[in-house]
Prior knowledge:
The chain has one domain. A four-stranded antiparallel beta sheet has the order 3-2-6-7. It has a two-stranded parallel sheet with strand order 1-8. Strands 4-5 form a two-stranded antiparallel ribbon. Helix content is about 35%, strand content about 25%. By secondary structure, it is of the alpha+beta class.
Amino acid sequence: MTLLRKLASRQDGVSTVEFALVVPLFMILGMYGAEIAWLNAASMEASQVALALADNASRLGQTDNSGVTPTVTANEVHSVLTGALEEGSNIGLAENGRVILSSLEVHPLTGKQYIHWQKCMGKGKQASAHGKPDATGSALSSIASGITLGGKKITSSSNSAVMLAEVWYEYHGLFGTMFVQPITIHEQAAIIVRDDRNVGPGLSGTNDKIEC
């Protein structure tokens, strides 16, 4: 009994015991905080890539110095899509996602909004949220009256186009599925072309690397 009383009165190990109890909790909180921070960073990165892709695509043809209104080539689109994947390399966008570029235009016959052409890059298998190109410009198309982004309706004007960029990214947790399951991030941006562009023929040339 004397020995037990002596042990009960000792306090020199209290700090060690408290530290051992608290450290795991703080480690878990720190890991969870890092997970949420990285998820937010990945989402912001995907958003920035979408905006840059739409902006770069809207400027295609501006360096054409001929007296003819420039068209856009498949190789030029390949360049901006490659740049988008490179910009998203910090989050492994090429391996875990897909970038999609669509040209929203006014159909010359029906006057309806339609996707004239669409190109993609990345190992992801996601499809555009706005459907495939529709050569008929059908009034039954879901985008016949335009597309909605951020609660606002976006339409193209005649003889012009809106560059619609989509970024799909499959987020996998830093610590596996300990805190979050795989999350699919989808970011979009749309910018009207910055200069005159001959949209009639669509893309000139071919490039198999950007086929959806």
